[in-house]
Amino acid sequence: MAENKIFAGGEFLITDIAPEEVFTPEDFTDEHKMILETAKDFVEKEIVPNIDDLEEKNPELVGSLLAKAGELGLLGTDVPEEFGGLGLDKVSTTIVAEGMGPAASFGVVYGAHTGIGSLPIVYFGNEEQKAKYLPKLASGEWCGAYCLTEPGAGTDALNAKTKAVLSDDGKHYILNGEKMFITNAGWADTFIVYAKVDGEQFTGFIVEKDFPGVSTGKEEKKMGMHGSSTRPVILEDAQVPVENVLFEVGKGHKIAFNILNIGRWKLGASAVGGCKACVTEAVKYANGRLQFKVPISSFGMIKTKLADMAIKTYMSDSMMYRLAGMFDNKLAVLDVAAKKSGEENAKTIEEYAPECSITKVYGSEALDYCVDEYVQILGGYGFCAEYPAERYYRDSRINRIWEGTNEINRMLVPGTMMRRALQGRLNLLPAAQAISKELMTYSPLSVQLPDTPLALQEHMVKMSKKIALMVAGVAAQKFGQNLAKEQEVLAKVAEIVIEIFAMESGLLRTLKIIEKEGEEKAKYQIKAVKAYVNDMVPQMENWAKEVIAYVEEGDMLRTQLAGIKKLARYQPIDAITLKREIADRIIELESYPF
Amino acid sequence: MNIVVCLKQVPDTETQIKIGPDNKSIVTDDIKWVINPYDEFGVEEALQLKEKFGGEVTVVGMGPKRVTESIRTALAMGADKGILITDDALEGSDSLATAKALAAVLKDLEYDLIFTGQRGVDDDMGVVGPALAELLGIPNLSLIVKVEAAEDGKSVKVNRPVEGETLVIESSLPALITAQKGLNEPRYASLPGIMKAKKKPLEEKTLGDLGLDAAQFGEGARKLKILEMTPPPERAAGKIVEGETPQEKAAELAKLLHEEAKVF
Ligand SMILES: Cc1cc2nc3c(=O)[nH]c(=O)nc-3n(C[C@H](O)[C@H](O)[C@H](O)COP(=O)(O)OP(=O)(O)OC[C@H]3O[C@@H](n4cnc5c(N)ncnc54)[C@H](O)[C@@H]3O)c2cc1C
Question: Could you say which architecture CATH assigns to the domain A11-144?
Answer without folding.
Answer: Orthogonal Bundle (1.10)
